[in-house]
Amino acid sequence: MGPAPAVAAVRHAVRASIADLARGDLVLVACSGGPDSLALAAALAFAAPRMGLRAGGVTVDHGLQDGSGSRAASVVSVLSGLGLDPARGIAVTVPAGGGPEAAARTARYDAIAKVTAELGAAAVLLGHTLDDQAETVLLGLARGSGPRSLAGMPRRRGAFRRPLLGVRRPVTAAACEALGLEPWEDPHNADRRFARVRIRLDVLPALEAALGPGVPEALARTADQLRADAEFLESISSERSRADSQLPVSSLAEMPGAVRTRVLRSAALAAGCPAGALTAGHVARLEKLVTDWHGQRWIDLPGGVRASRRSGQVCFEN
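^ that's the sequence the OP posted. Answer follows.
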């Protein structure tokens, strides 16, 4: 008798995600202990040895809740029990100020990237599901973040891979149940102080009630389509941008607006602007240095970067 359908679905997604890796490569799974990443960890533990790959796991203790250290130790124990080796727990310090979700996410990714480099892992699997993708698209839409945010999370970026972007959240829960795994439910996932939780508990159910089933799948398809468009435009932009800190106004003026804004954004990032702090509003002001020039002074950007127009060039300084 074969595995339960939910278990098979998660395993299939994992195998497809790591099929390009070479025998002997190490693959890590980032596991919080929740149903999505726990089902992913179990699927990797099953699939990797059958594909000639080594499999390990890592969990991050953000230190934001009482007992987080013991929970992280418990997750490491579960990962080891699944046969993942190495299995590591990492404690991080989340800086105060700003949005707690963004700060925790940055600290988590930085820690996982560091462990990935230390262990020489070829890939790290993340447990984001189709539902997470739909929530990301709606958040981007509500914030007016533009096509970059509406394109959602990529299936791959560097070493990070998201095998479950085509899998619904109930499937991962069913997989855990079928395998006898007991996931930990993060209380933050039910805390309506967080915008993503309100999207999950209130907005998406209301949309499905009004429009019928299939809204998360439609949002995920939209993300895929927009990502393909965005990646194409960014490839053109990267070809037209320059490595130095000055951009000729004449060249920028000839570019289509969709390309010009991406070139300016890339230049600002290269000059030291933090990606998460550089908004569409900042880029719109940069574009006015080209399209609506009337002698305005410099523009102060995040990260202590200053942009100005001088001698027919858009210049970035910090």
